[in-house]
Amino acid sequence: xxxxxxxxxxxxxxxxxxxxxxxxxxxxxxxxxxxxxxxxxxxxxxxxxxxxxxxxxxxxxxxxxxxxxxxxxxxxxxxxxxx
Length: 83
What we know:
The protein is of the alpha+beta class. It has a single domain, classed as Ubiquitin-like (UB roll), CATH 3.10.20.30. It has 2 helices and 5 strands. The longest helix is centred in the middle third of the chain and has 9 residues. The protein is globular, with a radius of gyration of 12 Å. It starts with a strand and ends in a 6-residue tail after the last strand.
């Protein structure tokens, strides 16, 4: 089971801040999970269009090729600017 967290504008776009999901068959990394999520259609397709989408696995910054396993926590968030 994965715990998936969505932050900032992603939470607003998707209408949820978190979900639990069984690790889909064939999904081995963050990029595969992202592809699986966007395949849901509707607002989920917008995940693929977020420029510079950031992700973390188990609270550590990750890349799309970062491996996933059952029990991992995955967070997606847009780039943050400040000043």
